[in-house]
Amino acid sequence: MRPRQTAFLFDLDGTLVDSVYQHVLAWHEALEAESIPLSVWRIHRKIGMSGGLFTNMLLRETGLELDAERAERLQRLHAESYGRRSAEIRPLPGARALLDYLTEAGIPWAIATSGRIATAKRTLDTLGVDPDRVPVITRDLVKYAKPDPDLFLAAADRLGVAIEDSCVVGDSVWDMLAAQRARALGVGLLSGGYGEAELERAGAYRVYEDPAAMLRHIDEVGGRR
What we know:
- A six-stranded parallel β-sheet has the order 3-2-1-4-5-6, sandwiched between helices.
- The radius of gyration is 17 Å and the shape is globular.
- Strand 4, helix 8 and strand 5 (185-189) form a beta-alpha-beta unit.
- Helices cover 45% and strands 11% of the residues.
- It has two domains: 7-19 and 89-221, 3-Layer(aba) Sandwich (Rossmann fold), CATH 3.40.50; 20-87, Putative phosphatase, domain 2 (DNA polymerase, domain 1, Orthogonal Bundle).
- It is built from ten helices and six strands, in the order E-H-H-H-H-H-E-H-E-H-E-H-E-H-E-H.
- This is Beta-phosphoglucomutase.
- InterPro entries: HAD-like_sf (IPR036412), HAD-like_SPP (IPR051806), HAD-SF_hydro_IA (IPR006439), HAD_sf (IPR023214), PGP-like_dom2 (IPR023198).
- It comes from Rhodoplanes serenus.
């Protein structure tokens, strides 16, 4: 019987690159431009979910009515503000080394992000990932983003692996919830600002500080050569 090969499906922001707070501030700036008051910490708690759910959250948190035109304008303002901050973004400690290890070991991996390609492209460039050579699933390619499982299911399909043999690596509760719904194992990282207990409650079976810590313990999550 052939051994089952573990695959790794990575979130992007806060998991491989240190960009969560740039996204938070970009959303805050976009909301301020539309005269929508919302505390920065409340925005942070929703980073990683789909844009549609983010809009629903705005309705609950502010009691405002958002028509399609205003929602689209917010998305554009966020993308522009994030673009101005993109030069600040760096890979998280150990991110490149972790991806290099998996590649050299012949262990399949892909990236699945709730961001659209317009914002994700700059981040991927910072990380040194070429979407023409590495499977990258963005919000543009699926019907629903996290906490729905579509992104990770599409990433596993692109790799040609079973989702049940995959580990979803993410920094938010939305990643872990999506992993559970996809029937994959979830590995949480603290590098996006969520706490260990929060990630474990959402389904993470291992939690590490950042990609460097995960690489040091790669044997615990099925990453043997």
